[in-house]
Design brief:
This protein is mostly helical and 134 residues long. It has helices at residues 8-32, 36-45, 51-70, 75-92, 110-124. Helix 3 (51-70) crosses helix 4 (75-92).
Length: 134
């Protein structure tokens, strides 16, 4: 019996769009809920100069790179700032909370590691190979 799985091409398309939307959701929520000053305060506590600049840079990078990924434009380049954001999130925030995000912990690194792996797969699939291009 064969389950109704999508083709590899379709699965990679879904992964690319979903990964992009996850990053874009963080940025959009930060803007919509007005939490940029709160995030900037955290960045200042970590020793970042011009913390609001950093928060806006992260937020805009998530939106711009995410949009590029959704449309399949320069996907490998778009993955670079998102990889840096996910890795930075682990280094600055998540590692100290352990691995688990929910159930057995709170705020751990597991979700960010999954995002990094997703980005690596998405970037690797950005190829001229017609079998992998949606």
């Amino acid at each position: 019996m064969q389950l109704p799985f999508p083709t590899l091409k379709t699965a990679l398309f879904l992964l690319r769009v979903t990964t992009a939307l996850l990053f874009m959701a963080h940025a959009a929520t930060r803007i919509a809920y007005g939490t940029i000053p709160q995030f900037a305060k955290f960045m200042a506590s970590q020793g970042f100069p011009y913390p609001e600049y950093w928060v806006w840079t992260i937020t805009l990078a998530e939106l711009v790179a995410g949009t590029a990924m959704v449309f399949g434009w320069r996907v490998r380049w778009a993955a670079v700032p998102l990889l840096a954001i996910a890795a930075g999130g682990i280094a600055l925030i998540h590692w100290r909370f352990g691995w688990f995000v929910g159930e057995h912990g709170s705020g751990g690194s597991g979700y960010s590691v999954a995002l990094i792996v997703m980005l690596l797969v998405v970037a690797a699939s950005d190829t001229k190979d017609p079998a992998l291009r949606p």
